[in-house]
Structure formats: structure tokens, C-alpha cells
């Protein structure tokens, strides 16, 4: 029997259509493709809680899944609009269903808010391109989410916001100088979430598409000198995606195999499927 996953799209319609225009897929479609590449027996459904009137699974529907993934988003959790509050309520419902839950970036923030934490803008600014020198905590060194990661590593990332107040039952697993909560396990209302503030699901090509359409913002914030500088960065990301052996580009970016090698980049998602989802499925007698 196939593994059944629900991929929850964090973006409103305009943002996901922009992503599809520049990358060819919406974020949730791309995420589902990654999950299905890691679990050949997987089937993914997609939900759009940011859309008013969207059909969302009821408690029985959530319990029918073997795992749920929450994607990133261009929204800001602290604005409190219905597009956000619907997603927090859905995260609470997933916790209550006890279905294994995984969140990337915005997804981790939704899990933290659902469990009683808080989210706000990072006082030291935006983390763009790559989260550098991610470092495991003592708990993270033995946690299955990070199995196979070295003591420090880099990962694709782009976010301004972060978890600013911890929920009551959380285990910090990794952080870095920019963002103290980079990986965590959150327990709430009988359920468990494994989440990361970075984006292991992003290929360099997808990261290039995201950075590519944010030229004005990133130039204004001082990440690039001008449009030419921004364009060169995006072109190099695309070139390294197409030719992972380009040591010249990898050297300029300061990247190693933890980002360039797709199998290593996807470590946390693979670990979630193998160490959390499959045991959960077996316990429920679905093997």
C-alpha cells in the first residue's frame, strides 16, 4: 500500500502562481515531487489553506495520511490575516490527529505558533541564499532528524522571520549565528512535528528562481550592489545546478557536498520519512 502524504501549500494564490511562472511548478508541487522522489511508494495530495473556501481535510481525513508536510510561504505569520490563521488552525488539527508532521521554514513557524510559541522578524535581518554553519545542539547530535549531518553544515534558506518565543514542549536540535531555532522537535496535543527553518527541499535551481524574482528587495537590503551583481549570482546558481561538478562556482559560494549533492541536501526529509513516518505506519498496521 502506498504511503499517503498531504503537502500543505503555505502561499496564497498570487505567490504560488508567481513561483510557477518562474520555476515551472508551485512550491507545493515541487515539494511533492521531492517527497515522491525519496519514497517511490508515496502518493501526495495538496491542500491550500491560504485560499478562502478551500476544501481542507477533517480530523478523519488527516488521520488517513501517513505524514503531513508544511511548505514555506511569502506570508508573514504575525500579520494575523485569515490566510495565516487558517494555517495555524490546520497545524493544530494535524497535531491533534497525531499524524507525523514536518515543516520547512514557514512550516516550522506554523507548528511553533500552533503549539503556543511566537514568530516575528529577525532583529539581525534576512537570511538569504544559504543558512551557514548550522550547528547541532547536544540533543540534535543524537536526534534522528539530523542523522547523517556533520557537526556543522550549510543549507538553502531565505527568510526574514523566525521563532521568537518557544512553545512549551520543544527540543532544539540546531541553530546558527543568524537564527537560534534552525531545527526542532515540537510536541503538542498528542502530536509531534519535526521542523527546520531552512529549505532542504530546494534545489539550487528553485533557489535561483526565488532569488531571481526578488531583485529589488535584495538590492535594497544590500545583498547585491546592483542588478548586474544580482543577475550574476542567479546565473551562477543555475549553472551549479546544471553542473554540480563546477568547483569554481562551488568555491566562490563556499559550498560543499552538503548542499551540492542532492542526496545529502535532502537529509532531513528522508530521515523524517524513514525514521518517523514508516514506523508510525507500521504501528498502525498499514505495512
Based on the coordinates given, report the CATH architecture of the largest domain: 3-Layer(aba) Sandwich
- The number of helical elements comes to 13
CATH superfamily of the largest domain: Class I glutamine amidotransferase (GATase) domain
**Could you describe the largest sheet, including whether it forms a barrel?**
9 strands, mixed
Query: Which stretches are poorly predicted, pLDDT < 50 over at least 5 residues?
Result: none
Domain count: 2
Q: How far is the first residue's CA from the last residue's CA?
A: 7 Å
The side-by-side strand order for the widest beta sheet comes to 2-1-3-4-11-10-9-6-7
Order of helices and strands: EHHEHEHEHEEHEEEEEHHHHHHH
Average pLDDT, rounded to a whole number, is 97
Name the helicity range.
40-55%
Q: Return the CATH class of the largest domain.
A: Alpha Beta
CATH topology of the largest domain: Rossmann fold
Strand proportion, as a percent range, falls in 15-25%
Q: Report Rg.
A: 18 Å
SS elements, strand count = 11
Structural class label: alpha/beta
Specify the overall morphology: globular
Protein name: Type 1 glutamine amidotransferase
Keywords: Glutamine amidotransferase
Pfam families: GATase (PF00117)
InterPro entries: ChyE-like (IPR044992), Class_I_gatase-like (IPR029062), GATASE (IPR017926)
Amino acid at each position: 500500500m502506498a504511503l499517503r502524504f498531504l503537502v500543505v501549500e503555505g502561499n496564497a494564490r498570487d505567490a504560488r502562481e508567481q513561483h510557477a511562472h518562474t520555476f515551472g511548478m508551485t512550491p507545493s508541487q515541487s515539494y511533492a515531487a521531492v517527497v515522491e522522489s525519496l519514497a517511490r511508494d508515496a502518493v501526495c495530495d495538496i491542500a491550500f489553506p491560504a485560499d478562502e473556501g478551500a476544501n481542507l481535510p477533517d480530523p478523519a481525513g488527516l488521520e488517513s495520511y501517513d505524514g503531513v508536510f508544511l511548505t514555506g510561504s511569502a506570508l508573514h505569520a504575525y500579520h494575523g490575516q485569515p490566510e495565516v490563521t487558517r494555517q495555524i488552525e490546520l497545524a493544530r488539527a494535524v497535531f491533534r490527529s497525531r499524524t507525523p508532521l514536518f515543516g520547512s521554514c514557514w512550516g516550522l513557524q506554523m507548528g511553533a505558533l500552533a503549539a503556543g510559541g511566537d514568530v516575528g522578524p529577525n532583529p539581525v535581518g534576512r537570511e538569504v541564499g544559504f543558512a551557514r554553519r548550522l550547528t547541532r545542539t547536544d540533543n540534535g547530535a543524537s536526534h534522528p532528524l539530523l542523522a547523517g549531518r556533520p557537526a556543522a553544515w550549510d543549507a538553502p534558506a531565505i527568510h526574514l522571520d523566525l521563532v521568537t518565543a518557544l512553545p512549551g514542549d520543544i527540543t532544539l536540535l540546531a541553530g546558527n549565528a543568524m537564527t537560534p531555532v534552525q531545527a526542532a522537535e515540537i510536541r503538542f496535543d498528542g502530536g509531534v512535528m519535526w521542523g527546520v527553518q531552512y529549505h532542504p527541499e530546494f534545489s539550487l535551481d528553485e533557489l535561483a528562481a526565488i532569488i531571481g524574482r526578488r531583485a529589488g528587495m535584495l538590492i535594497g537590503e544590500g545583498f547585491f550592489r546592483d542588478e548586474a551583481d544580482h543577475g550574476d549570482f542567479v546565473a551562477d546558481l543555475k549553472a551549479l545546478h546544471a553542473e554540480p561538478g563546477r568547483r569554481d562556482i562551488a568555491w566562490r559560494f563556499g559550498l560543499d557536498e552538503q548542499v551540492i549533492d542532492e542526496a545529502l541536501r535532502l537529509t532531513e526529509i528522508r530521515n523524517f520519512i524513514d525514521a518517523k513516518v514508516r514506523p508510525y505506519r507500521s504501528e498502525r498496521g498499514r505495512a
